[in-house]
Amino acid sequence: MAEEKSSTTNPKESYPSFSLSNLTQSDLGLGLFGFPEKPLPPPPPCVEVDPSEEPPIALSNADPVVINESLTLYKGRVNTSDVFGVTNSDLVPGKYEGGLKLWEGSLDLVKTVYSEVEKGRLVLKGKRVLELGCGHGLPGIFTGREGAALIHFQDFNAEVLKYLTIPNVKENLMKDTSVSPFVRFFAGDWSEIHKLLLSGNIDQQKETDETLGSEYDGYDLILMAETVYALSSLSNLYVLIKKCLHYPRGVVYMAGKKHYFGVGGGTRQFVHLVEEDGAMEACLLAEVADGSSNVREVWKFSFK
């Protein structure tokens, strides 16, 4: 697949969870000049994070995020130095995956889901929602504003959930007594986090209940923004989606950059993986080329 030229003069800003200035090739476990690869640290354990674990300094500042003239959400401001003790880095292998930054794809995803609701193509009232790699959690928060009954937020880092996601959820949802979704927060790697999430396994469904016509629960809607930057994680991400998505009517909305230069991932790489598997179909909903980053896309996936 031919690479596109970046539309930004600062390519480092176009690589979620990756900073060329802070990492060497060996730091990423890629190997260099025939030397053995440096093994990455093991991922943190999968845990549920209680909302009461919000640190006292969390959300000391809340900034408005104007989605459109009808929708404004609020986000906190924290930095990697305060939370992780590192500066100017979007990735610390095995420790931090960039969740403290509000990436463009998160806003693209909110806008697209908003449009889907407005056009009557998506109903959120009463639905079960999972946001993967949530960071600020704005897409999941929006579904709560629209009546989702259950929202689970997942991020690689428990610290991101404590310092950012939980305060943002409280700021946007808990202050409004008319909005009361059941909310939980989970931290951990995509290869293991399914053990804590709802199950909607398509393979198990087909093997055990095909003749009965019953359905697994799982999530009605899975949201993810800027999660497909690294080729090495795409398989685990897709397997997780198939394990957790409600079969057969669940849908996935994914926002991200078409290509992540330097790390090999991108929306098209993930779409190719989905099409190769053959269990789901992909539909391109939006393409954004506004000059603030590489070309960005929003896709919808559903079971065939």
UniProtKB/TrEMBL annotation:
Identify one Gene Ontology CC term for this UniProt entry.
Answer: nucleus
Q: What is its EC number?
A: 2.1.1.85
Question: What UniProt keywords are attached to this protein's entry?
Answer: Cytoplasm, Methyltransferase, Nucleus, S-adenosyl-L-methionine, Transferase
Superkingdom of this entry's organism?
A: Eukaryota
Q: Which GO terms describe its molecular function?
A: protein-L-histidine N-tele-methyltransferase activity
A GO biological process held by the record: methylation
- Using the UniProt record, give the first listed, main subcellular location: cytoplasm
- Localization in the cell: Cytoplasm; Nucleus
State the Pfam families in the record.
Answer: Methyltransf_16
Q: Could you say which enzyme class this protein belongs to?
A: transferase
The UniProt record lists the keyword Lipid metabolism: no
Chain ranges passing through the membrane: none
Q: Which InterPro entries match?
A: Methyltransf_16 (IPR019410), SAM-dependent_MTases_sf (IPR029063)
Region ranges (Disordered) = 1-22
Q: In what ranges is there compositional bias, type Polar residues?
A: 7-22
Q: Does the keyword Isomerase apply?
A: no
Q: Which family does it belong to?
A: Belongs to the methyltransferase superfamily. METTL18 family.
Its recorded name reads protein-histidine N-methyltransferase
